[in-house]
Amino acid sequence: MSSAPEVSVVIPTFARPDLVTRAVRSALAQTVTDIEVIVVIDGPDQATQDALSGIDDHRLRLVQLAQKGGAPNARNVGVEHAAAPWTALLDDDDEWLPEKLSVQLAYARTATVALPIIASRLINKTPRAEFVMPRRLPFDGEPVCEYLTVRRGLFHGDGFIQTSTIMAPTSLLRRVPFTVGLRRQQELDWTLRALDHDGVDLVIAAEPLVLWHQDEDRPRISLNSPWEAQLEWVRKMRPRLTPKAYAAIMMSIISSMAAPTRSFRVFRMLLGDARRHGRPSAIDYLTFFQIWLIPPQLRHTLRDRILSRRRPAPGPAVEPTPATSATPDGRPSTAEHTVRTAATTLPVPTSSPGSDVHV
């Protein structure tokens, strides 16, 4: 490996040696070989050190933290250790298809801005179904915050971004670190804050390049976040959101976390907040009521059955025009920031998720 690799891969982990080993092997199996893989072990964890010590590859580096600080902090530490101009993020329970970095670097070379965030579609694997997300690429001129949050279906949204799909300039990830202490919506929070900066755009590759394992029989830290903390987060993010996006987050994401309280007071507060500061659609109201009325397990089953029967919609053939709305200092506002897509530039990888990923 040269002194300056082409891409640094950052993987935060703690106490999941088998899963992180799978993730590391998928990163080392990339067709782009000039990389470094930085695994940040988030606290004392001898089992993970022992498991990764069995991988004989000079491109793998371990960073051991003295105490737990959470995944956002571990990612930030990994980025500080990155030697490459690009950093790609990978969660320890996900996998990459072998062409992932190659495809994203090709998109990066054709980007029209100085600091492009390159994301992609992924293959969502649950115990009940397997389907591609996001279902569609952004429409021409669609604000990023609306693309990523506004629903057009009762049990699902169309837009989506997930940490393991993101490759971005290392300098941008250092300038805009992940929010330490935020338990959910970490990638949405980071993306919207990053888009506040000059020369930054979001590019979404049409190809599914990541395997996202949604194994519901094992603990997921991100699913145990107190809804009050997430409510505080979305209220702070309101200046970066359109009224449509704010209502969608409040009536779907926050409501799904708060619904187990079965509290009419909380129900009324969230509904009132969404109506007062947002612009709910009919789908938002339907989503809100079904979240509070239908048990989560049944909702998830219905969602997976619906999505597994639908093919993802094709992306637009024409690259969207950048947003024209601006903040008082003349920069495009995050709430109206549009997203660029590269739906027809490159061929879809021919590898199948079942056979070509190293596990």
TrEMBL record:
InterPro entries listed in its UniProt record: Glyco_trans_2-like, Glycosyltransf_2, Nucleotide-diphossugar_trans
- The record places domain Glycosyltransferase 2-like at 8-121
Q: Which CDD domains does this chain map to?
A: Glyco_tranf_GTA_type
Region (Disordered) residue spans: 309-359
Q: Where is the composition biased (Polar residues)?
A: 341-359
Top-level division of the source organism's lineage: Bacteria
Which Pfam families did the record assign?
Answer: Glycos_transf_2
What is the name of the protein in this document? Glycosyltransferase family 2 protein
Tell me which species this is from. Answer: Micromonospora musae
